Amino acid sequence: MENLKGPVAGSTSATCGWRAMLLPQLNRQSLYVYGSEMAVEQECIRQLQSGVFVIHPFSLMRSYYIMCMMAITFLNLIGIPMEIAFLDGHSGLAWEGFNVFSDTLFLIDVALNFRMGIIAEDGEEAILDIKRIRVSYLRTWFIPDVIAAFPIGYILLFADLQYQNNDNPSKTNKMMRILMFVRILSLIRLARVSRLVRFFNEVEKVSNANLEVVRLFFRILSLFMMIFLLCHWNGCIQYFVPMLEEFPTDCWVRKENLMNATVIVKYSWGVFRALSQMIALSYGSMDAPTNYVEMWIVMVSMVSGCLMYTVLVANATTMIANIDPAAKEYKSKMSRLEHYMGFMKLPPELQLRITNYYQARYGGKWFQEKDVMHTVSSALKEQILMVMCSRLLRKVPMFQTRDENFINAVLLKLDYEVFLEGDAIVRQNVPGDRMFFIDHGQVVMETDSYERELCDGDFFGETCVLTKGKHLATVKALTDCQCFSLSWDDFQEVLEGFPDVKKDLEKVVQVNADDALV
């Protein structure tokens, strides 16, 4: 099977292009839900055999559709308050066309949601049955979506055409009041903010990127977008309320001489006042509220600013707490270690060596290697150790001609160890039960008659793992060393499964013993 980003090749080779866009893709989330590429292919076959038009939640069309709807929704949430507050019915043909297009798209979205596959609550399957999709949608988001998709754009377009074609003054005034009511009614389209939140959540589910990174990115992006929308809406409200009152003489718009200013100037002042009130610096001008309406606007701004602070601090705290947990765990362990060393009154030199050991062993990130190895499959464990240690084993004469299965069995028994500069790894004439493979670092091997340096890829202690005898030399670390060790007990356990190799090694040991006697 090919490694595709699109639908699985075997199930879509005879499927036309548009139909293939409805099928599930190979991405991290689909593999997490279904477990394997073969299971994703079976899901494609299941959808094709159903013969019903349903958009799979992991399909390419769903991904593109969510991105498009997220952009359209965000533009609506920006443009609608701007139109109501500042454009005063002079939005122009382009904006009215965009409104009609958006309303059409949201109405289509309501219809498509009856054909949009959903992920089950347990996250273990995608629901593609039309009846279950319909019941689920009607019970959850149907009513909010219908309210948000109410076609205000069509009503405004029709009313504007009637207003421009009517020369009767009384009917014109009546039409203006109707237009104002409809524009206020169009605020219900701000309910589309719920869709924006849903789209953000769905983007996380169908993304092909690293899940944790994606969640963090979209959490930050959604947080700042919501804060921006809150400030934007508040700024529009600052101007919209005085406009409804037909700009009384004591309102801030007249005091700042903004009656004939451009839209961008009015909007800038409105946002400035909103931010000033939300962060409680000032009221945005030299004067306090002059009437109860402005007073209520200020109070609402202050409360929304407090909520913004609360949400921002809570999310920032959560994200900071979840960033690099391994480094935080390492610092916590080191803090406990320092308390322990102080309580035991260890010499400063020894405390420094212990601290250096932890830094060399873990590199500032706390992890339990055995826990990691126990949680992965045996095949993955073999591959990990093969990458790290296979070259080390192949340099040892007694392993060079051995079967691959035997080498893999030995790899699973290796333990990772770190030694600091100056450590005596083994001592001459002391019983030993391990041999060592140097991954990185430099050691010196010393006896009464000679001295030899070993470095990356070398090994020592092989006689101990064969005979469990005494070490023939003292080995000291010249630098910080990262090694792998193989114990006699583990090696004997491996040999029990390979009797032929065991007999060969016993012969080698006997020959060496005879040579020593001669």
TrEMBL record:
Its main location: membrane. One of its GO terms (molecular function) is voltage-gated potassium channel activity. The chain crosses the membrane at residues 64-87, 93-112, 141-163, 175-192, 213-235, 295-323. Keywords: Cell membrane, Ion channel, Ion transport, Membrane, Potassium, Potassium channel, Potassium transport, Transmembrane, Transmembrane helix, Transport. GO terms for biological process: regulation of membrane depolarization; sodium ion transmembrane transport. It is found in: Cell membrane. Pfam families: cNMP_binding, Ion_trans, Ion_trans_N. SMART domains: cNMP (SM00100). The keyword Cell membrane applies. It is a multi-pass membrane protein. It comes from the Eukaryota. One of its GO terms (cellular component) is dendrite. This is Cyclic nucleotide-binding domain-containing protein. It comes from Perca flavescens (American yellow perch).
